[in-house]
Amino acid sequence: MYAKLYGATLHGIDGCVITVEVDISQGLPVFDIVGLPNQSVKEARERVRAAIKNSGYDFPMRRIVVNLAPATIRKSSAGLDLAIALGILVASGQLKGRKANISALLNRCLFMGELSLDGSLLPTFGTLAMSLAGLEANYSTIYTSVENGYNLKAIPNLTIYGESSLQNIITVLENQVKSKSISTSKKVKIGKNQDEILTDTMDNKNHNTTYDVDFGDVQGQELGKRAMLISAAGHHHCIMIGPPGGGKTMMAERLPTILPPMSWNEMVEVSRIQDVIGLLGDNGLVRNRPFRHPHHTATLASMVGGGIQGRPGEVTLAHGGVLFMDEAPEFQRQVIDALRQPLESRTITINRSQGNYIYPANFICILAANPCPCGYYHDPHRECICSETMVKNYQQRLSGPIMDRIDLHIPVERPTLEQLLDHSTSTMTSESMRQQVIMATALQEKRYEGLEFNSNGAVPHKAIGELCNITYKSWSVLGNIFDHFHLSGRAFDRILKVARTIADLEGNPQVEPHHISEAMLFRTGK
């Protein structure tokens, strides 16, 4: 007796469709799962055995072999429980209906769900990624748990059956086999089409921009807020250096409030990443941009990703949003230096024995640092207690290559008493800044339409002169600056890209000399 149906597993943060083959033959009672399963999949034998019995069906006391193909991919998802259980029931003839109708139905469906011992269906991580992989392979019908079904219902062109137990799934399947078609019923959740989803996204626009914090709360720090505006508008990385209590963390936490709303593709991509590690919850797709704030004791693996399964790290979880590293010099040197590749390529490559994983890492990096261990080096009002050696060693924890990759260097001073007591409404609120950012990003999307990048911060070297429309006078000013400060080629490019963003914020199609001067101000921090 033989049955074949389809499940899915995770390969990094990508889904992979798995063919589940079940063969039941004469022999001593054995239940084997082959095809490179990991420990959680091997343990499915006991979960499936108990779930079938407690759902009112017979577990065959024969030789049962379950093959998970392709055998070259390690199977790491407990969500294969449902497919294995159904395969056993179909192979043993316990699913009612003609065999030809059953096979035709199973050939175009994906089954994903973890089984409890009583036959209940439990939610699993990574269902969104696996469903997208199934949709790409023309499996448009998904059977899963109620919780996973809720998160999947926003995906267009998917038909979702979210049920609470193995028994309910079997009932739905038997009804469909009996009617010889996949018909809608009260238990069927049908995904909306993309036009409806985009309409819902626009209708819920306010949800994207509702935050508990606002740049209007930041008193003083006009230079810092200007730098945050430029960073958000052009997708530029920045570092803030100043004494403790100056407002560095406040400004970094408010950066997501001025970023433009996420597009449909960005929402799906960010949700897919968060679902893989269980951060998606039951609120549907993510609509607010991520803000990741790892502690300075974070390890290398937690930052860039790693482990046997190639788990994504903070740089991937911050994709589409902000990665804020407070007290940056306190991080391990190797952790900071590991940011070199993602800051340039906006991806991260993880090499493991199980395979190579390339994860997206397109985020805005914000670093905050004190000038010395005590925080008061060159402070006009507080005495620094650090020796010159301590100051030098502290500042050298941020390597030259990392500092060269940071577009904006921002000096942050403590606000004055007058600024702290001034409760008048600031003109630089999150709403006003966000409108400027939306205008500037729209100009960039139009300028780079059809190219692999859509922001000034991502423009490659060979395209800067061609696409950024820099005037002759600006080239002359920048040439003088290059000779005077002995800039690297990377710093030269980054000044041009920041100047292009400043021009976009003004709505100016050309990069003028004063744009270069302001960009250089943020490069030298003076």
Automatic annotation (TrEMBL):
Under Gene3D superfamilies, the record lists: 3.30.230.10, P-loop containing nucleotide triphosphate hydrolases (3.40.50.300)
Q: Which InterPro entries match?
A: AAA+_ATPase, CHLI-like, Mg_chelat-rel, Mg_chelat-rel_C, Mg_chelatse_chII-like_cat_dom, P-loop_NTPase, Ribosomal_Su5_D2-typ_SF, Ribsml_uS5_D2-typ_fold_subgr
Q: Which residues form the AAA+ ATPase domain?
A: 234-416
Give one Pfam hit by family name: Mg_chelatase
SUPFAM superfamilies in the record: P-loop containing nucleoside triphosphate hydrolases, Ribosomal protein S5 domain 2-like
For this chain, the family text in UniProt reads: Belongs to the Mg-chelatase subunits D/I family. ComM subfamily.
Which PANTHER family is this protein grouped with? COMPETENCE PROTEIN COMM, MAGNESIUM-CHELATASE SUBUNIT CHLI
Question: What protein am I looking at?
Answer: Magnesium chelatase
Question: What is the species listed in this Swiss-Prot or TrEMBL entry?
Answer: Veillonella infantium
